[in-house]
Design brief:
Blueprint: E1 3-14, E2 18-37, E3 40-47, H1 60-72, E4 78-85, H2 95-110, H3 117-127, H4 131-138, E5 141-147, E6 150-156, E7 165-169, H5 175-179, H6 188-206, H7 212-215, H8 222-225, H9 230-241, E8 246-248, E9 255-257, E10 273-277, E11 286-289
Parallel strand pairs: 3-4
Antiparallel strand pairs: 1-2, 1-11, 2-4, 2-5, 5-6, 7-9, 7-10, 8-9
Helix pairs in contact: 1-2, 2-3, 2-4, 3-4
């Protein structure tokens, strides 16, 4: 095998109160080609983030690919990487997880190995949590948790009536910055609220979307991120007041809406946000040989 072509989906995480625990893959995909060459590194990027991402060994895809090759013993003397990006960068749609999962999947494929818990562990180590990585790797809805220093996740099938709409602003996010707004402690009442809503979210996402409005309500992280994304918070509230289940996607600033009837109400002001209807991705990362 002289190389692989990888496609990897976007993802949305938290899904209300499921902070660092719930993720869902979205049908918006980056496409990457990893071609093994005799020596050196060449990186070409088009589409989202093309002018901003590095084109050397510090590129996130390259770093994840190198780590995977080292882990599984894949010998790659040189690499030509071509990235065609459609996932918006730094918007809370899992672009970094997609990059990591693509690199890991390519390294495993070149070693002739299937993706497994070791692959998930490696990808999650880059992110510090497994919700986006598991969703991008396996598709559908991911339930993630940690045990000691180990990352785990299971995939569950979403209810086919789930019809996501992502509302993407022009401004970019920094997960590190917005995570820094979170308190080290929350009131016991809010913690109990979050546990109940996260559990309800699993049921609503997989069996009864009519419960999504309650399920996506959050007190654990969204209120603390309002200073960073006031427009995002206003839009989440406006949608919820109009009866549309909505939440901050990941660390923001994108808004995830899950309208039960598939449509957003005409009275909600979407100024500053571009609405995109995207299906839930069921397949996760895909790998095929180049030759």
């Amino acid at each position: 095998m002289t190389g692989v072509r990888v496609t990897v989906p976007a993802s949305t995480a938290n899904l209300g109160s499921g902070f660092d625990a719930l993720g869902m893959a979205l049908g918006l995909r980056d496409e990457l080609e990893f071609e093994v060459v005799p020596s050196g590194l060449a990186v070409e990027v088009s589409g989202e983030g093309a002018s901003a991402v590095p084109k050397d060994e510090s590129h996130l895809v390259v770093r994840a690919f190198r780590a995977a090759c080292d882990l599984v013993g894949a010998e790659v003397p040189g690499l030509r990487l071509t990235c065609r990006n459609t996932i918006p960068h730094a918007r809370g749609l899992g672009s970094s997880s997609a990059a990591v999962v693509a690199g890991v999947a390519a390294g495993f494929a070149l070693a002739g190995r299937e993706l497994d818990t070791t692959a998930l562990q490696l990808a999650a180590e880059f992110e510090g949590h497994a919700d986006n990585a598991a969703a991008a790797m396996f598709g559908g809805v991911a339930i993630a948790w940690t045990q000691g220093d180990r990352y785990h996740a299971v995939r569950v099938d979403p209810d086919p009536r789930i019809s996501p709409v992502v509302l993407v602003p022009e401004v970019e996010s920094s997960t590190k910055t917005t995570r820094g707004l979170l308190p080290s402690k929350v009131p016991h009442e809010d913690a109990a609220f979050a546990v109940g809503r996260a559990a309800l979210a699993v049921h609503a996402l997989t069996a009864d979307p009519s419960l999504l409005l309650d399920a996506l309500d959050d007190r654990l992280h969204e209120p603390y991120r309002e200073p960073a994304w006031p427009a995002t918070t206003r839009l989440v509230r406006a949608l919820r007041e109009a009866g549309v289940p909505a939440a901050v996607s990941g660390a923001g600033p994108t808004v995830l809406a899950l309208p039960v009837d598939g449509d957003l109400p005409p009275g909600v002001d979407l100024t500053g946000f571009a609405a995109h209807r995207v299906p839930v991705d069921l397949g996760g990362v895909g790998v095929a040989p180049l030759d």
